[in-house]
Amino acid sequence: MHLTASEIFTSVREELLGEALSSPGLLADLANLERYVAETYSARSFIELLQNADDAEATRLKSNATVNG
Asked: Does residue 19 belong to any structural domain of this protein?
């Protein structure tokens, strides 16, 4: 059986909603996890870029960044 992207999304959504209704703390836990990832990723983004450059064996750096302030 082949499901469309919309059918998969609907299925996952319904399953998650069912779990959330049966476990009220789950939704709060997921919200806290999302907040943690969002807050910590901004601090890690520069390190992630450096790691990506290292993985690609980069030998040069070019920056078009500007500093405001």
From this structure: no
CA 4 to chain centre: 23
Structural domains in the chain (count): 1
The sign of the dihedral angle between the CA atoms of 28, 30, 36, 42 is negative
Q: What is the pLDDT along the chain (69 residues), one digit of tens a residue?
A: 799 999 999 999 999 889 888 988 888 898 899 999 888 887 788 888 889 999 999 988 887 878 776
